[in-house]
TrEMBL record, chain A:
Name this polypeptide is given: ABC transporter permease
Annotated membrane topology: Multi-pass membrane protein
PROSITE patterns named among the record's database cross-references: ABC_TM1 (PS50928)
Keyword check for Cytoplasm: no
InterPro entries reported in the protein's UniProt record: MetI-like
Primary subcellular site in the record, as a coarse category: membrane
Record-stated family: Belongs to the binding-protein-dependent transport system permease family.
Residues of the ABC transmembrane type-1 domain: 60-240
Positions of transmembrane segments: 66-90, 110-139, 187-211, 223-243
Keyword entries, A-Z: Cell membrane, Membrane, Transmembrane, Transmembrane helix, Transport
Presence of keyword Transport: yes
Superkingdom: Bacteria
From TrEMBL, chain B:
Family annotation (InterPro entries): MetI-like
Alphabetical UniProt keywords: Cell membrane, Membrane, Transmembrane, Transmembrane helix, Transport
CDD domains: TM_PBP2
Organism: Falsiroseomonas oleicola
Limits of the ABC transmembrane type-1 domain: 55-235
Membrane topology: Multi-pass membrane protein
Pfam families according to UniProt: BPD_transp_1
Name used for this protein in its record: ABC transporter permease subunit
Family: Belongs to the binding-protein-dependent transport system permease family.
């Protein structure tokens, strides 16, 4: 099966390799200015140095920690609030206007005010990431909780399940596909906000390094760090997709 | 007219708490102006024309990027879905670019396109491209096989089939992708303006933050919230009008 997948993407990989080779040739031939776009082979060598010297570990870990912490906090708030709003109409009435008020704010615009209050440290960055994560998770959870089969809820009541038991053992598992879909959207946004917060705060992390390298005109290094960040994005998506498949294996079997 | 619910009271209560905490000195900080001062700043900057001018510039960049990225997304999506060879050849390249967080492409783009409109429009277009591409491909897959077969029976060529049968049929999916993209586009426009150059609302936010002018900064956030809300509302209305047949089918 892995072999089949590999065969399916082989032509695509070949095209990618060709494009990189073409870029290399174009730069070497002087068609693209070397100062702006170093040849891929040079970027590759820089990347290798970063990896071999272990220099990449600290910034990568800083960004990873930020994304994970913000993603976890935001997801938790989104799931709890979404479940409450989907389950108790009173909670929905109470929070709906507030949610509708904050939701359309482009979350990137909240970073400057947050910097005034929380400084430029970890707290500010985590809060920025968590804020952008909350809403997709919340809305999807709400939708999932409301979509739970009435017959199953009646059955739970017939069996004398209490509210907490019903929520934990019936509603949340049934809403899980929706919750996870929301979390997948949020994960991408979390990385965007993490990089932005790092750039604006100006200390540490992959986002800061990329901007800093450009401003110091260390162009090779800028591209090398960008590759590391892209791989991080790819890895996070891949890991989440795998976890999602595992968590929802029952759904695929029934479908 | 909507009834005033507990939620409306909560929002009003929070605003009142904000005002009181600043006026009565519960939170004593130059970063915490009363909400009335924020509204005053909003009105002041609107009258001087500073904010409307900057918002106008941001909106122009956002819509240019939305148009460019949306068109590219639809065209590539149609190609990938209708001509599988293209997807096999270029799918990997697209998937390799997709996971790069947008703010990170700004520094390299600055090198090539500078700090102004071309760079920012490109960043927005890049953001918009991916959701529209994904949705267009999904939409094409959902087109009824009979519709395409009928077109073929009537001797309609592949180009015209793509334009007059497939595209209208997958329009609801394209529009759903565009709606997602619209929200992202506003976020990214602000991001690009914050990181590079001296244009637009994003830059205004950062300048006000550095200048320590909190009322102006919050006023800008409020304005952006209203803008985000209005854009989404307007889009949903246009969407309903454009694909009323889709909703009429009860989907």
């Amino acid at each position: 099966m892995l072999l089949d997948r590999l065969r399916a993407i082989l032509p695509g990989l070949a095209v990618l390799a060709l494009l990189i080779a073409g870029l290399e040739a174009a730069v070497q031939a002087g068609m693209i200015r070397r100062v702006l776009m170093p040849p891929p082979s040079v970027i590759g060598a820089t990347l290798f140095d970063l990896l071999a010297s272990g220099e990449f570990v600290e910034p990568l870990m800083a960004t990873l920690k930020l994304v994970f912490a913000g993603f976890a906090i935001g997801s938790l708030i989104g799931i709890v609030l979404g479940t409450a709003m989907g389950w108790w109409p009173a909670a929905f009435r109470l929070f709906e206007p507030l949610v509708e008020l904050v939701r359309p704010v482009p979350k990137s615009a909240l970073v400057p005010p947050l910097m005034l209050f929380l400084g430029i440290g970890f707290t500010m960055k985590v809060t920025s990431v968590a804020l952008v994560v909350i809403f997709p998770v919340l809305l999807n959870t709400l939708q999932g909780v409301r979509g739970v089969d009435r017959v199953m809820l009646d059955a739970a009541r017939t069996h004398g399940w209490g509210t907490a038991h019903t929520l934990w053992h019936l509603v949340l598992p049934a809403a899980l596909p929706f919750v996870l879909a929301g979390m997948r959207i949020s994960l991408g946004l979390a990385l965007v906000l993490a990089v932005l917060a790092e750039m604006l705060a100006g200390e540490g992390g992959l986002g800061f390094l990329i901007l800093d390298m450009q401003r110091s005109f260390l162009i090779r290094q800028m591209y090398a760090w960008l590759v590391i960040l892209a791989v991080l994005g790819l890895a996070l998506n891949g890991i989440f997709a795998a976890l999602e498949r595992r968590a929802l294996h029952w759904q695929n079997r029934n479908a | 007219m909507r009834r005033i619910t507990s939620g409306t009271w909560l929002v009003l209560g929070l605003f009142a708490l904000w005002e009181a905490s600043a006026r009565l000195g519960w939170v004593d900080s130059p970063n915490w102006p009363p909400v009335t001062e924020v509204v005053a700043a909003l009105i002041r900057d609107s009258i001087t024309g500073e904010l409307p001018l900057r918002v106008g510039g941001s909106l122009w960049r956002m819509f240019s990027g939305l148009l460019a990225g949306g068109l590219a997304g639809v065209v590539v999506g149609l190609a990938f879905a209708l001509v599988p060879v293209t997807a096999r050849l270029f799918g990997v390249v697209v998937e390799a670019l997709r996971p790069i967080p947008v703010p990170a492409v700004i520094p390299p783009l600055v090198l090539f396109l500078g700090l102004d409109d071309p760079m920012k429009i490109t960043v927005v277009a890049l953001t918009v491209f991916f959701p529209v591409l994904t949705n267009t491909m999904q939409g094409v897959r959902a087109v009824e096989v009979e519709a395409i077969a009928m077109g073929r029976t009537f001797g309609i060529g592949p180009w015209r089939r793509a334009a007059f049968i497939v595209l209208p049929a997958c329009l609801p999916y394209v529009l759903a992708g565009l709606r997602v993209a619209l929200g992202l586009a506003l976020v990214v426009t602000v991001v690009a303006e914050m990181i590079a150059g001296e244009q637009g609302v994003g830059n205004y936010l950062v300048v006000m933050q550095f200048a320590g002018r909190a009322p102006e900064m919050y006023a800008t956030v409020l304005l952006l919230a209203a803008l985000g809300y209005a854009l989404n509302r307007a889009f949903v209305t246009l969407e309903k009008r454009a694909i009323h047949w889709w909703f009429a089918m009860g989907r």
